[in-house]
Amino acid sequence: MTFYKIYDRTNLKMVDSGVVRDYQIDLDYLTNNSSTLDITETSQGFKGDILAISEGVNLIVLGVITAIDNTDLKISFRHMKELFNDNVLNVFRSLGTLNATFDAVQGLRILIEFAFVNTTDPMRRLPLDIRAFGTSPGAVWVEDSLAINLQEFIDWSFDHYNVYLDFDLDFLNNRIVVTIRKNEFVGHILKDNIKLSKPEVDNNELPRENRAILVSKDTRAAVATYFLRQDNTITNNPNDPMRLMPPATKIVEWDEVDAIREGYTREDLARSELEGNIYNHCILYKLAKRQTMVRPDRFNYGDKVTIIYENREYESIFTGLRFRKNDPFVTCIFGKTRIDFTDRMKLYNQRRYARKI
Question: What average pLDDT does this structure show over 5-23?
């Protein structure tokens, strides 16, 4: 039988529990869509509480409640990173460190601690146990708005540097465990001999840009050109056999003074502009829940995946799961663009309006 429990976000005290009739879960890390839970009795929970859904003793998912409809007996919730959906002071602007390099893992940790651990607002403070694994030096934040939406910063860290958040609950110490990870895993292979489903591939399979021309801020002359390779690295060799084709060019301003002061190179700048564009696609792959050849629940956000179908290889990255309670399949989401137009527009609008704050 499937159960749910609801916990107060500030102290992890249980405020409600019950039986689950149905659920529809969307764990797309990029779009942060809503998931829904159908319950059998009215709930005593509140918006912002933490929701845990379990099958027996096995945890299915954690989430943050966004709405409770006790008329239709339905709870809406989102990925646990919804805990951090709030604005913080743009410390990069206030400290004069815009366009300065920093470690994306530790930078994210500092911002979360600043906003939800060291805050003077007792109702905003969360019982966090923050852990960090890996490093990602060379991150640069350029938005000069007065505030940063922390969830947008979390999405940016994943999109640009493959740094993601993992969550767990520690009831022994009553802590929300949030782990910040730099994911460098490579090795998952999905072959069409699994014979489970035909992958659904977005038409936009090519990177947005695979060629970067650096232009001097002072002279407006081109000072360097770099190219994206098939393994998501860059080269300055135009004849590299692994270079992605056809050319799709981005013009990037190069400021020699800023580069010397902040300690980054032309190659660093080109890498930040090009790497990751190789995942500019969306691939949906349905896998049976009961099969054991590929275990979707063992994927981590940012895992590198090779999908082989009809003698063609797709290099991609894991970005989410979608599944329902009684559906025998789970849909794995790979890549960084979205097939659904409404998803794309919602993500665009969220980021556009957040920058106006």
Answer: 96
Q: Are 110 and 70 in contact (CB under 8 A)?
A: no
Domains 87-183 and 186-204+281-338 share a fold: no
Output the DSSP codes for 84-149: G-SEEE-HHHHTT-TT-EE-HHHHHHHHHHHHHTS-S-TTT---EEEEEES--TTEE----SSEEE
Residue 344 has phi, psi (to 5 degrees) of -65, -45
Closest by Cα among 354, 337, 333 to 28: 333
**Number of neighbours of residue 349 by Cβ within 10 angstroms:** 10
Question: In terms of Cα–Cα distance, which of 334, 335, 227 is closest to 279?
Answer: 335
CATH class of 186-204+281-338: mainly beta
Torsion of CA 3, 6, 64, 38, to 10 degrees: 40
Q: Is 80 exposed, middle or buried (0-12, 13-18, 19+ CB in 10 A)?
A: buried
- List of residues 6+ apart from 130 with CB closer than 8 A: 109, 112, 113, 117, 178, 179, 180
Backbone Cα Rg of the chain: 22
What is the reported pTM? 0.79
Amino acid 74: pLDDT: 97
pLDDT tens digit sequence for 32-56: 899 999 999 999 999 999 999 999 8
Contact 65, 31 (CB under 8 A): no
The tokens of 225 are what?
């050109």
Token representation of residue 289: 């829940």
Q: Could you tell me the fold of the domain covering 87-183?
A: Phage tail protein beta-alpha-beta fold (3.55.50)
Tokens of 346: 């919602």
The residues spanned by each domain of the chain are: 2-78, 87-183, 186-204+281-338, 211-272
- Burial pattern 332-342, b for ≥16 Cβ within 10 A else e, equals bbbbbbbbeee
What digits encode the pLDDT tens for the residues 104-162?
999 999 999 999 999 999 999 999 999 999 999 888 888 888 999 999 999 999 988 99
